[in-house]
Amino acid sequence: MILSSRDCPAGFLGTTAQVDLGTFVAQKKFFSSFWIYAAAPGGWRVPVFPGGLAVGFLWGGSLIAALICRFSFTRRNAGLLLSHCGLILLLAGQFLTHDLSPEKWAS
């Protein structure tokens, strides 16, 4: 829940920035970075929000930790286990697509 509330400002800012910056620049700045930076006096860049990659890694780590520490592997919990493994697989696939896609290397 905390991770979701921290990502909401980044998602909102990234979505609204697409109007001025364009889709690809906004995606790179807000969703494909570990931190979202703001300009500070003196030309410094100050991190203000975690970016999409940071939130994704934290969410994936939280899912894996919950899977290892909290779940009892019984037949009764098979659906819950399957859904969490599916979410982990989706996050891993998204990261691999982001990291290995040809569009990343074109710019």
SSE layout and pairing:
Blueprint lengths: L1 H20 L1 H9 L3 E5 L5 E6 L1 H18 L8 H23 L1 H5 L1
Antiparallel strand pairs: 1-2
Helix pairs in contact: 1-2, 1-3, 3-4
Structure write-up:
The chain has helices at residues 2-21, 23-31, 52-69, 78-100, 102-106; strands at residues 35-39, 45-50. The protein has 107 residues and is mainly alpha-helical. It has one domain (2-106). A two-stranded antiparallel ribbon has the order 1-2. Helix 1 (2-21) runs antiparallel to helix 2 (23-31). The longest helix has 23 residues, at 78-100. The N and C termini lie far apart (34 Å). The model has no long low-confidence stretch (mean pLDDT 81).
Protein traits:
single chain; 107 residues; mainly alpha; two-stranded antiparallel sheet; 5 helices; 2 strands; 70% helix; 10% strand; elongated
